Amino acid sequence: MSASSRKTQVQYDAIVVGSGAGGGMAALHLTVNGLKVLMLEAGRNYDPVRETPMFQLPKDAPLRGDSTPGKPFGFFDATVDGGWRVPGEPYTNAPGSNFLWWRSRMLGGRTNHWGRIAPRMGPYDFKPRSRDGLGFDWPLTYDDLEPYYDKTEALIGVYAHSESLENTPVSRNGTQLPPPKPRAFELLTRKFCQPLGIPVIPAPIAVLTQKQDAEKWPAKLFPGNALAQRVIRDSMRSRQACFYATDCGRGCSIKANFQSPTVLIPPALATGNLTIVPNAMVREVTLDNRGRASGVNYVDKTTRAEVRARARIVVLAASACETARIMLNSKSSLFPNGIANGSGLVGRYLMDTVGAGIGGQIPALENLPPHNDEGTTRHHLYIPWWLYGEQKASRMNFARGYHVEFGGTRGMPGPGIFSGLEHYTDGAYGTRFKQEARRYYGSFVWFDGRGEMIPNDDSYCELDPTIVDQWGIPVLRFHWKWSSHENNQAAHMIKTFAQIIESMGGKVGGKVEPDGSKLIAKGGEMIHEVGTVRMGDDPKSSVLNPFCQAWDVKNLFVTDGAPFVSNADKNPTISILALAWRTCDHIVAEMKRGNV
Amino acid sequence: MDRRDLLKTLGAGAALPILGTPGSPPQDPPTPQGPPWTGPAGTETDPDLLRAKASWPGILTGPELATLTALCDVIIPADEKSPAASAVGVPDYINEWASAPYDYQRSALVTIRGGLIWLDGESNRRFGKPFTSLSDAEKAAICDDICYEPRAKPEFKAGAAFFDLIRNLTASGFYTTREGMKDLQYLGNVPSQRWDGPPPEVLKHLGLAE
User: Fold this and answer.
1) How far is it, in rounded angstroms, from Cα B97 to Cα B94?
2) Architecture, CATH, for domain A161-202+354-451+483-519
3) Is the backbone of residue A481 left (phi > 0), alpha (psi -120 to 50) or beta?
4) A24 and A584 in contact (C-beta within 8 Å)?
5) pTM to 2 decimals?
6) Which of residues 401-430 of A touch B (CB under 8 A)?
7) What residues of A are in contact with residue B11 (Cβ under 8 Å)?
8) Which residues lie below 8 Å from residue A147, measured CB to CB, with a gap of 6+?
9) Interface touch B191/A244, C-beta < 8 Å
10) Looking at this predicted complex, what is its ipTM?
11) Segments making up each domain of chain B, as ranges
12) What span, in angstroms and rounded, lies between the C-alpha atoms of A178 and A152?
């Protein structure tokens, strides 16, 4: 059957490609403003309310829930048809590069399993080049995005610390929720970090520590919009506060954490303005004869046939790399190098987060009185970057900061629980093994640094000229290189964590490697890919304008992580959401004005 | 979703208003309706998380399982607080694990099967009988030589790697059961309307009390 015979007859106001943070936010804000939206999701429909394995124990899973090639983060992880490899959808690496690309083929994408860590970018983070001469400045400031952080937090629910620290802002308008009390190991860590000058404060986490105020927020978030207020009120009422059990990474059937299919998509559907087509793998954005986007072509995975969808505007939110891939594959006589790619920058300046970590054993935590310390299952405390002054004074060998996510707890025993215990017990087995297990359970801590990467010319994605996926779509080829800034940062992380562990009277697990290049995680491994379709003030050096609208194609927008100009150490999801809301306000205003 | 559903879904958005008036509620409040939901595909990458089961048969034979069971119970014997590893199904778990159709486990299976033969061989060499027939003291005599790889003599390095793998698997299998969790006094996975932080006795233990 030819593609033309499968042309859909419906023209939508907007096509949104992707259903995660950026796609869910776009669908919500466009539909509550009366636009008819077609959402295309490359994976299957997914319903956290019906599917989440709440309370399941390891024994309820094959291999006690352990990681397998098909479920690399463990059996219960809320990832469908994804992971580092997606069946039938390869990607490649240029010689010498080893980039890893995590994908999820499900409604809501990676918002289903993400860490829920939601720190705002700070004022420095928008103007890094102005501060230290490296990388690039954003075409907007913290003040521009601050109201959208406020609104996003009130919409999705984020608990956080109550006072701002340097470049670590919190809401000035009470949009964040109170944090849960710290756990024992977190309090102990805070005590021993204090003399080291390391701040330990409540972590910003997208989990409801109380029910949302469904009477107050809808009118504040959507003044004058009765439809929006109604659907948001209903949505907020349907969400429960966290009940402090069962791992957030599985998703949440009571909607206590943020994931797009529980928080953004239901209210968007409730407007009656949203149509979702799952299993729709978008190949390209199509152009009309005026050089504007006319819609997209996608492959219906269930029939393996190409389908054409039309709309007045196209919003790409397929994830930074997938969005770049769609744009590069959208070739025409007008845009031989991909749609809206006059700058040649689509795919360039791909960034991830610097990751390195180390664990240790803390005698003070041995034989703790038994108690339930699962809490929200996410961090209650964390360490924001604290050495801005040292960097400003050029006293460090890397330019940007990192924050620290640390863990411990008497959490649910899982596979591998006592792997390595033999090093602490001289190879205990038998009755002594059981005694040692009781003693050591809950006494291990670990520290993970998550740092800023400076964009560089050697880290990018492009189309692989020889490989297509099973849908006939050319795949991405990655190029990756860390600079000394990132490697030195990784070394600083490990040295610092060892110092913290030792000051707690603990023993570091393994040796403290001084060479950062041996410690740093692989590109992509932190699953914070951003960049590739960056925004800017100048069409020659950016793909998108300051409202994430393509310079070259006025009715093409991007609302995922692709527009990011830098990648601060702040986990990107909350910024993707805030930026998407701002972009949607611009879209609605421009459509009302008749400009797109 | 089949072709009919797809058409139905696409047809649902057939109306074409340009831009609605944000302030005015719609005439007929529409009901939220997503695409049809068919649930997990039941594949390796999309298993049913609520009704999970290993889908492969166990490879280890009866005699292998007998030796393995004896070794598991040397590693985690019954004591006053909890039963032995074999009493909570650990050998079956290890069989499931070692028989899994993945590269990592296939490679480990070689270590396990080879290790079991070596263990019986060592038992025969030292005591003239298989491992399952040894006394506790005889079992310990062998296990003491292989219980810690860094200290094992060169001729026991391979045996120590095998022992280490079985010890890790035995612990994984044991402590992920209700009995094992009870042994560790794991108290989580219980919903609660409140979160009060650690109790006073924990803070006192850590010297963090006010």
Assistant:
1) 5
2) 2-Layer Sandwich (3.30)
3) beta
4) no
5) 0.94
6) 410-419, 421-423, 426-430
7) 10
8) none
9) yes
10) 0.93
11) 62-74+85-184
12) 16
Residues 6+ apart with CB under 8 A from A543: A327, A340, A341, A343, A345, A346, A533, A534, A535, A536, A550, A551, A558
Q: Is the dihedral of CA A240, A242, A244, A246 positive or negative?
A: positive
Q: Which of B26, B96, B197 sits opposite A63 (nearest CB)?
A: B96
Which residue bears the tokens 């009755």? A431
Beta-ladder partners of A463: A476
The residues pairing with A507 across neighbouring beta strands, listed in sequence order, are A361
The CA distance from A581 to A24, in Å, is 10
For the stretch A380-406, pLDDT in tens is 999 999 999 999 999 999 999 999 999
Distance CA B163, CA B142 (A): 11
pLDDT tens readout for residues A468-497: 999 999 999 999 999 999 999 999 999 999
Give CA angle at A97 (A95, A98), nearest 5°: 125
For residue A458, which amino acid is it? D
Q: Amino acid identity, residue A437?
A: A
Interface check for A10 against chain B (CB to CB < 8 A): the answer is yes
Query: What is the C-alpha separation between A362 and A185, in angstroms, rounded?
Result: 9
Joined together, the tokens standing for residue B54 give 């290993």
- The domain A1-48+86-132+206-352+474-479+529-596: what is its CATH number? 3.50.50.60
Distance CA A224, CA A208 (A): 26
| Alpha-carbon dihedral angle through residues A185, A189, A190, A196, given to the nearest 10 degrees | 180
SS3 category, A138: coil
Domain boundaries, chain A: 1-48+86-132+206-352+474-479+529-596, 161-202+354-451+483-519
